[in-house]
């Protein structure tokens, strides 16, 4: 097969045109899991609740399956350093039932098993561990926040 420089350039141009993310930084994603002692499986996850991407803020995800099941949420956030998402304890980004802002500090997976484990009303820094990348978080508490997360919004960058 004889590929010329011109042919190779054309193929690369097509790849960029039809898949602009070929060399771009990976897009962030948030996966919320519903965890409960009543669900099957050794890890306690019933199943992936839903995957959210920065393309859309979600003012109300109570319509999705598993929302009204017993349990609390855990979160996995992927993407580049600076990816930022805010979880709200009520629909339509209402702040009166608590919120949690998560800002990635590296490009590793951030895994948060306890959404209520942060100091109230202040920024907390968490270094990278074997199980999670580094991140910072701001938590405005509300009773049972981790059970009632109902909307989320993305920010472009908040390093």
Automatic annotation (TrEMBL):
Presence of the UniProt keyword Signal in the record: yes
Top-rank taxon: Bacteria
Keywords carried by this UniProt record: Signal
Signal peptide span: 1-24
Name of protein: NosL family protein
Organism expressing this protein natively: Candidatus Nitrohelix vancouverensis
